[in-house]
Amino acid sequence: MPLFSTDFTHPRSAIWNMKTNSSNSLLAVSTGPLKISELPPNSVGTGDESIHLSLVIPTYKERENIKNVVNVLSQLLDESIAGNYELIVVDDDSPDRTWEIAQSLTTEYPQLRVMRRQQERGLSSAVIRGWQAATGSVLGVIDGDLQHPPEILIQLLRSIEQGADLAVASRHIEGGGVSSWSVVRRFLSRGAQLLGLVILPGVLGRVSDPMSGYFMVRRSAIAGATLNPVGYKILLEVIGRGKVDQVAEVGYVFCERKEGESKVTWKQYIDYIHHLVRLRLSTGKVGRLSRKVKFPIGRFVRFGFVGFSGVFVDLTVFHLLRTVIHLGLTRSTILSAGVAIVNNFLWNDVWTFSDISQGQRALHQRFKRFLKFSAVCLAGVILQALIINFLYNVLEINQYLAKLIAIAVATIWNFWVNLKLSWRVTDVK
Ligand code: GDD
Ligand code: MN
């Protein structure tokens, strides 16, 4: 039976009216892991399993757009799969009360359901929470600001019907584009894609527009996987953690916004990089390895980043002390190293080991950790001196190579001992 068999379409029927009359309230928001079930919620025994497409519309401050969006999407979908779809608006408690307006539309559009989230925030998790309430076998997402041309929906559906597990609306294939983006935004968008290709080729290489927020996926392709997205780019998560075999793409032109404004800020770029690194470390070969050897690779990478930042802090402070205050060489060296240690400690405390330090936030507890951290780092320096002497004087290895090896060993030492001693991972539940 084809997925969207026309025999099964029926006009907005009694089923819908019954359903919405009895539950004209807001959709419940699931809590817990961001995981989609194999079978839609309440799928047993309702006799209403003909809903195929569940299209989530994430919104934040879209009061000017919401009515129009719902209207356009309903008209379009009624023409091809009437009665076989639902629209799910997931609003993050917008101060302009978008959710309220959406809710008021449900009488006129019985296939519309509305979720108001008050505990969580963020585009990606909004989409997943919406899918968790969805009854369809095909899960989709489209922006709530009409920047995604609705007509493409039909082509996306067709692709799924023809066997694709995932159908992505793309700006970067035949028929696609952006209407009038500035050079800067184009550059940032492409730069982000390039960076992603380097870090996660297996995910970003599979589609021409991995940043797309307009796509459909079979429920079966993502069911059971715990999704863990950061920020805006939900598609990365779907490809990275789902079981997506066949991918189809449909070109589209990203339209200009007519009402309201974009919520993209610099934070989305940071989130994006964070997301790439997290996916890299938890999926594929690296993920399997890190689970097998039980080495906290993610934490180690963060520790490494912090260490790297320390080098720059050290050099900068050293330079300032020497040129501005004209401090002596030894004093400048010691002082700048001290500042770098404080820098590293703070970042490690609030980032690398944040999960652990959260439970021990009192000032004296932090200070105790700082003292231990400094002692471990000092021991690391001594360790470096021993290693470099051995490598250079005994084994006669090139001094720079010797220094590099010494740094590597000291970094692992610093990480491991700080993990076990300063942030004592074993003591925290
Ligand atoms: N629930 C919820 N929570 N919705 C949100 C949030 C949030 O925190 N932030 C944004 N939205 C909604 C907006 O209301 C809009 O409907 C949609 O998500 C996209 O947000 P925009 O701020 O308009 O994003 P954009 O136009 O810059 O970017 C779009 O295009 C990109 C490129 O294709 C988005 O669709 C991106 O996902 C997409 O990658
Ligand atoms: Mn937009």
Keywords:
single chain, 429 residues, alpha/beta, Spore Coat Polysaccharide Biosynthesis Protein SpsA, Chain A, seven-stranded mixed β-sheet, two-stranded antiparallel ribbon, 16 helices, 11 strands, binds guanosine-5'-diphosphate-alpha-D-mannose, binds manganese (II) ion
Characterise this structure.
The chain is of the alpha/beta class and 429 residues long. The protein folds into 2 domains: 12-288, Spore Coat Polysaccharide Biosynthesis Protein SpsA, Chain A; 296-426, no CATH class. Helix content is 52%, strand content 10%. It has helices at 14-22, 66-81, 98-104, 123-132, 152-161, 183-199, 201-204, 219-222, 234-241, 266-282, 284-293, 297-323, 329-352, 354-357, 363-394, 399-422, and strands at residues 34-35, 53-59, 85-91, 112-116, 138-141, 166-170, 177-178, 215-218, 226-227, 247-251, 253-254. The protein has a 7-stranded mixed sheet with strand order 4-3-2-5-8-6-10. A two-stranded antiparallel sheet has the order 1-9. It has a two-stranded parallel ribbon with strand order 7-11. Helix 2 links the parallel strand 2 (53-59) and strand 3. The two termini are 51 Å apart. Guanosine-5'-diphosphate-alpha-D-mannose binds at residues 58-60, 62, 90-92, 121-123, 126, 143-145, 147, 211-213, 232, 254, 262-264.
CATH topology of the largest domain: Spore Coat Polysaccharide Biosynthesis Protein SpsA, Chain A
> What is the topology, as strand order, of the major beta sheet?
4-3-2-5-8-6-10
Number of helices: 16
Give the CA-based shape: elongated
Quantity of strands, as a count: 11
Tell me what the CATH architecture of the largest domain is: Alpha-Beta Complex
CATH class of the largest domain: Alpha Beta
Structural class, by secondary structure, is alpha/beta
